UniProtKB/TrEMBL annotation:
Gene Ontology terms for molecular function: protein-L-isoaspartate (D-aspartate) O-methyltransferase activity
Organism the protein comes from: Dillenia turbinata
GO biological process: methylation; protein repair
Class in the EC hierarchy, top level: transferase
Catalytic reaction equation(s): [protein]-L-isoaspartate + S-adenosyl-L-methionine = [protein]-L-isoaspartate alpha-methyl ester + S-adenosyl-L-homocysteine
Record's keyword terms, sorted: Methyltransferase, S-adenosyl-L-methionine, Transferase
Example of a GO cellular component annotation carried by this entry: cytoplasm
InterPro entries: PCMT, SAM-dependent_MTases_sf
Presence of the UniProt keyword S-adenosyl-L-methionine in the record: yes
Protein name: Protein-L-isoaspartate O-methyltransferase
Length: 273
């Protein structure tokens, strides 16, 4: 039987080339694909598997070694916010893989968290406001809170009440707990497609599920000069970066292909979409 290459892992890009790979398709055809390691990682398997990393600091060092983390700022945040506090009990916290957190939801793989933090880091300065849509177990929201500090505001919105409760419990065990107590970090039960107007406008909006199109309420709540990172698409999805210009217009670029759970209503999610 002829073997086929799974082409959904290959992304052709005009950006900086980090690797040239040669693949064989069927028995007699060859194709040369130029792609960045950073982009290929988004849809390929983990950098490392179960049991090979057993400390959060080692996880961050591996992400630095693979070039996913490129800044000291992101490295320090991910070392401070231990992923082990935010995965379900009994799950291996430091493998590079998404994990089921119940309710047909997942916590993203570490390389995806690192990628999003790198894309957003310049907009996560002290005093700024950040919104995390589909905040899950609270990991990325906690990272945002640490970056914007006590004078800023980090808001997590999640439509599963049980996950909001879990997020709060997780943060209370972490070094970010004082920010939760002081109120600069908060979690709310709500439909993230409508954002969270109370603390808008936001310098950063991150969406942790794939939308068919970018929801207008999120566009409206993004501050001029702000940045949104959101996966867009249904069967085929792309991670998009949207920058809102000072005049209210916006520019969008594609970072990589990804695979996220859909951004949908609570009932649809609980039914398995």
């Amino acid at each position: 039987m002829e073997e086929f290459l799974e082409m959904d892992l290959i992304l052709i890009t005009a950006s900086q080339v980090l690797r040239i790979s040669k693949f064989r398709i069927k028995a007699k055809y060859e194709v040369v694909v130029i792609c960045t390691r950073f982009q290929r990682r988004a849809m390929s398997g983990p950098f490392w598997g179960r049991g090979s990393i057993d400390r959060n600091e080692a996880l961050v060092e591996q992400l630095e070694n693979y070039g996913v983390i490129g800044s000291q700022k992101v490295a320090e945040v991910m070392k401070t916010v231990d992923r082990g506090y935010f995965v379900p009990e009994g799950s291996p916290p430091y493998i590079d893989s998404p994990m089921d957190i119940g309710y047909n939801a997942t916590i993203s793989a570490p390389h995806m968290h690192a990628m999003c933090l790198e894309l957003l880091k310049d907009h996560l300065q002290p005093g700024m406001h950040a919104l995390d849509v589909g905040s899950g177990t609270g990991y990325l929201t906690a990272c945002f809170a640490l970056m914007v500090g006590p004078t800023g505001r980090a808001v997590g919105v999640e439509h599963i009440p049980e996950l909001v409760a879990v997020s709060i419990e997780n943060v209370q065990k972490s070094p970010v707990a004082p920010l939760l107590k002081e109120g600069s970090l908060s979690f709310h039960v709500g439909d993230g497609r409508y954002g969270w107007p109370e603390f808008a406008p936001y310098d950063v909006i991150h969406v942790g599920a794939a939308a068919g199109k970018i929801p207008k309420p999120l566009l409206d709540q993004l501050k001029p000069g702000g940045r949104m990172v959101i996966p867009v698409g249904n069967i085929f999805q792309d991670l998009k970066v949207m920058d809102k210009n000072l005049d209210g217009s916006h520019s969008i670029r594609t970072v990589t292909s990804v695979r996220y759970v859909p951004l949908t209503g609570r009932d649809s999610q609980l039914k398995g979409f």
